[in-house]
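Lecture notes, continued. The same structure-token format from the folding unit now serves as the input rather than the output. Read the line below as a description of shape only.
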């Protein structure tokens, strides 16, 4: 089950209630993204750098990133970004990276990046000696923003369902999430945002300005198009997305695929 499925208690069946008829999309789907097509052919899920590349192809913002296969390469690639930077382990065997020491924050120069890569791999190999390690994703560390969760699951009765919720401490304490069936219209996307119980936080709190809801609407529509055009995506969650006064950024992504026999 997806990481977001337990965030709220609203039943998926509630998506079908209400007077408004939902128009199904009529235009032909584009071919699946090549990375997803390749992964399904080999019966594997996307690695996080691949997931970020797919998101970028659909206009969903992530931090700029590089995929380093060794400590030395990580040191060289660190020159592409401002500091501080973040390293995240890349492995098909590790879904929850923080639990195994697979995320390192606040790296201040190239030497710290190289040392952190070596230490991270050594620590993981001690606890998960059989894990298939494929290097590390390297990116600049983003400024704090309002944390959101955006995800998709495939319901056997309803079909493709998107979930939007407040993230961070709000995810578990408040369970503030809403669901919609795909495909989304612009009206659906705006309605999802407005249906969040604590949507007033988007207006700005404690002296901060209003957050960029237009960017969030664009991202919801792009995410809907992503899952509609790539039906092999069984589950996907972006957790968190950081929403700012201008723009947003998805800083963690997981895509689980379904494979035909």
């Amino acid at each position: 089950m997806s990481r977001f499925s337990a965030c709220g208690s609203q039943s998926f069946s509630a998506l079908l209630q209400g007077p408004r008829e939902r128009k199904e999309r009529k235009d032909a789907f584009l071919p699946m993204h090549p990375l997803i097509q390749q992964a399904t052919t080999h019966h594997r899920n996307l690695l996080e750098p691949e997931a970020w590349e797919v998101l970028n192809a659909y206009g969903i913002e992530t931090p700029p990133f590089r995929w380093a296969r060794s400590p030395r390469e990580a040191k060289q690639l660190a020159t592409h970004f401002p500091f501080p930077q973040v390293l995240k382990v890349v492995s098909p065997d590790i879904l929850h990276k923080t639990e195994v020491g697979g995320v390192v924050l606040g790296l201040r120069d190239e030497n710290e990046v190289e040392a952190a890569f070596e230490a991270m791999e050594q620590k993981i190999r001690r606890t998960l000696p059989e894990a298939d390690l494929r290097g590390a994703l390297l990116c600049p560390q983003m400024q704090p923003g309002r944390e959101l969760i955006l995800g998709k699951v495939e319901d056997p009765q309803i079909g493709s369902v998107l979930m939007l919720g407040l993230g961070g401490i709000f995810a578990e304490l408040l369970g503030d999430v809403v669901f919609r069936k795909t495909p989304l219209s612009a009206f659906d996307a705006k309605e999802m945002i407005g249906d969040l119980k604590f949507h007033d936080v988007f207006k700005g709190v404690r002296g901060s300005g209003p957050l960029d809801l237009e960017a969030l609407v664009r991202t919801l529509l792009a995410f809907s198009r992503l899952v509609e055009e790539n039906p092999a995506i069984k589950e996907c969650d972006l957790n968190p997305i950081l929403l700012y006064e201008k723009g947003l950024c998805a800083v963690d992504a997981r895509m689980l695929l379904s494979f035909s026999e």
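Point for the exam: Residues 12-17+29-45+51-59+143-257 form a domain with the D-amino Acid Aminotransferase; Chain A, domain 1 fold (CATH 3.30.470.20).
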